Amino acid sequence: MTPSLAPLQSTNDFVVKFANVNGSGSASANELFAKAILRMGVPVSPRNIFPSNIQGLPTWYEVRVSERGWLGRRGGVDLMVAMNPQTWDADLAEIEPGGYLFYDNSKPLPKSKFRDDVNVIGVPLTEICNATYSDPRQRQLFKNIMYVGALSALLDIDVPVIEALIGEQYKGKEKLLQPNIEALHLGRNWVREHLLNADPSTRPPMAGLSDKGIGLQVRKADAVGDRIFVEGNAAAALGCVYGGATVCAWYPITPSSSLAEAFQKYCQKYRVDDQGRARHAIIQAEDEIASIGMVVGAGWNGARAFTTTAGPGISLMSEFIGLAYFAEIPVTIIDVQRGGPSTGMPTRTQQSDILACAYASHGDTKHVLLFPEDPRECFEFAAAALDLADRLQTPVFVMTDLDIGMNQRLCAPFAWDDARSYDRGKVMTAEQLDEGREFARYKDVDGDGIPYRTYPGTHPDKGAYFTRGTSRNPQAQYSERGPDYVYNMQRLLQKFDTARSLVPQPLLRQSDMPARHGAIHFGSTSPAMDEAIERLQERGIALDTLRVRAFPFPDSVKAFIDAHDSVFVVEQNRDAQLRSLLVNEFGIDPARLVAVLHYDGTPITARFISDAISARLRPESRAERVA
């Protein structure tokens, strides 16, 4: 059967997706594939889509290859590596017309299992493994390396690059090194002998092959520059170290656990004294409630402390978060968001905790949220959150998600000014107390809503205060008087308003053409949004964009909305949570904010965004744009 469409042709710009079974050992092989292309100087953006069980269920690994540097998901697949019979039909359906299907053809499949507009490449991986290896586990693991070798021949990936990566992976484990390299060449040599170098008359008619490989090719480039390849969780953990955190209390929960584990690794290197003694405390608590309680206690005592969790953890922490808000204790909470509600989809990504965190706890509460877009900002915002928590004496949330946290991403190198000092905010010293300065723990002394605090033990008989979650007067004395309560609640609002100028400010990107419409986005939506804007421009649709990086929203966000006829709000949840915040905080007519919502648990794609906006906006004529 000959494909009805010409094979796709593209160099350094395509999408490869691996369909595997969880627990099969494929993750390291797929990562090896992505890193090999990266080492050739071509930007890649891999995403691991895996189930929450240990093994047996489907898992996918998608690699975006883009010399232009697009790091968001594009949408669609150009080459599907179909290694899971359970998901065959769905995987086949994702392939772009003219694209490629790579599969293990050890067992023949009927013609009905293929598409006539897809080029099929079969390699008998199981047959080769069975003939080479006797151990069942070796057969499975080496089959993964074999398909990497086969793909290296088809896509023209440099073999020495892959061999070097294998060498790094198995450094000190020489017994494993050589067998993996041999498996790599088994797959590569089979493709070269039976497909690429075979007589053209004997090549499979469906393969779309030439002696150079398939129409998708990797060519050496210099498009990576000085960028680094790192997970957001590791970046945030390092940001906490540089930001001065010495206490982390946490409870394991996907997808945030690796953040606490990375923090522990970094502390063992950077948070020890000259004798190697720990100058940090990392506690795996019995549950999320205990972990946030420990962090609140540490913050009250003057330590820089944080916890990391996901949506279910936020739900459990709610009462302690309210205590920290009302007692005004610095706390940093890193929420690596996942699919909800309840257990939801623990290993899928969403931006679905926005409202839960913005108004966490009962009563009238408002919390500071930071929205990083990549690992670089995870590093920066984690450190900034610790400063903001101290400065504002309040909980501060870093709202990352699984897509950023657990996937490796190219980003700018981290930077840190060694002359930077930590912002501890309004902390009254023993000397100031001896000078006769008034200490009223909950009194606004200069109009910013932020009172002075002291560290426990600052002075033997001055400046002490008792912290509780009940109402009090400015001197921290228990009071249920209405005026005292109102004073305190209004002061907390003033403090929240002060935060507008302290949080990371939004970033504006204006269209090359006058634009009547705008779009607001945030966090992990940004890479796909960047590409979607170019797609829309190609369709004649001009759009200004604003990337919101924090809540409370600075006044520039309201100005952006007011400057446009309508504004699309792009987010990854069902209920348009950021849009709801905008309406609630600014009193905006909801009709002016158009929700673009993606919430199936996979990262949003540029194709989804551009198609959703295009469906609402027809391309404007030049006369309309000028008018």
Automatic annotation (TrEMBL):
Alphabetical UniProt keywords: Oxidoreductase
Cross-referenced InterPro entries: 2-oxoacid/accept_OxRdtase_asu, Pyruvate:ferred/Flavod_OxRd, Pyrv/ketoisovalerate_OxRed_cat, Pyrv_Fd/Flavodoxin_OxRdtase_N, Pyrv_flavodox_OxRed_cen, THDP-binding, Transketo_C/PFOR_II
GO annotation (BP), single: response to oxidative stress
Pyruvate/ketoisovalerate oxidoreductase catalytic domain residues: 23-188
A matching Pfam family: POR
Segments for region (Disordered): 461-480
Keyword Oxidoreductase: yes
Composition skew (Polar residues), residue ranges: 468-478
Domain named Pyruvate flavodoxin/ferredoxin oxidoreductase pyrimidine binding: residues: 240-404
Gene Ontology terms for molecular function: oxidoreductase activity, acting on the aldehyde or oxo group of donors
PANTHER family: BLR6743 PROTEIN, PYRUVATE-FLAVODOXIN OXIDOREDUCTASE-RELATED
Xref: NCBIfam families: OAFO_sf (TIGR03710)
Name assigned to this protein: 2-oxoglutarate ferredoxin oxidoreductase subunit alpha
Lineage: Bacteria, Pseudomonadati, Pseudomonadota, Gammaproteobacteria, Lysobacterales
